[in-house]
Amino acid sequence: MTCKNLLSSEKKYFGPLSNSPVLLLCSPGQALLPLFLVQNQSAVSRHLSGKSVGRKKCGKKRCTTRRGDRTLSKIVEKDRFQTLGDLRKQWTEPGVETSRATVHRRVLLNQKQRQKRLTWATEKQHWTVAQWSKVLFSDESKFCMSFGNQGARVWRKTGEKEMPKCLKSSVKYPQSVMVWGAMSAAGVGPLCFIKGRVNAASYQEILEHFMLPSAEKLYGDEDFVFQHDLAPAHSAKTTGKWFTDHGITVLNWPANSPDLNPIENLWDIVKRKLRDARPNTLDELKAAIEASWASITPQQCHRLIAFMPRRIEAVISAKGFPTKY
């Protein structure tokens, strides 16, 4: 006999002697039978067999009070489009102890890619910070006028969907810019604002006019190793020839591994600052990006590079799966 709970699926704890009625739709015959308030089929079985026993509630205790929750609600109502970081900052001012849930990008990795990540990390597990300091890391990132490609978040309750203060005008095709940048333990190089799609030819122009000046600024006459991901323009044969002609060593890199690239942390810093700047035009967006990028200090970059051994250890511990970085 198959039964379906007609009540809410919200999980609650009910003692074994609870005799509050619940309607269960049972087949065949579609009969409605009153039973004890239960959550699933296994709970029914335990109750009928007499094996149901009471137990204390488990799980982590609440770290906030009901009063603190009401305070947060008032903060949200002032501006429904605040970021999670802004809300936490205001909420912790009275002394509420909370932590910000950090959202990490997780990419899908197949078994072959995970194995390559694990092999790569195993090969690099004995690299020192000095060796990682010789690597010039690079990447591209997209910046939109409406921050976050999904637009702004709104904090609202059920039934407030159409309230004017919970609505915000949006642009169907928000303006955006694609940016290329590079960093090392010594700091950051100049940014390149990319126009159009990147192919092998245009990427080699970026290398010529922005990567080489970055290397000159950060390494001078010292040798360095260049890092980039496996994008088609990066792995093209003509691009490989460009590096050979210029005598530049390229670091082999596993696919789908943004968690291994410290420059991702710098992009995140820039994007957080842009949320405060709120540029209204494309020129203002570019200026804000450049200003935020220029404010990144060599000390910040060195700290990120110093954490590279930990990133490697994390990949090995995760057996090639994505890490918290």
From TrEMBL:
One GO MF term: nucleic acid binding
Q: Which residues form the signal peptide?
A: none
Write down the Gene3D superfamilies for this protein, in alphabetical order: Ribonuclease H-like superfamily/Ribonuclease H
Source domain of life: Eukaryota
Where are the coiled-coil regions? Answer: none
**Limits of the Tc1-like transposase DDE domain:** 135-286
Q: Which Pfam families match?
A: DDE_3
UniProt name for this protein = Tc1-like transposase DDE domain-containing protein
What is the species of this protein? Cyprinus carpio carpio
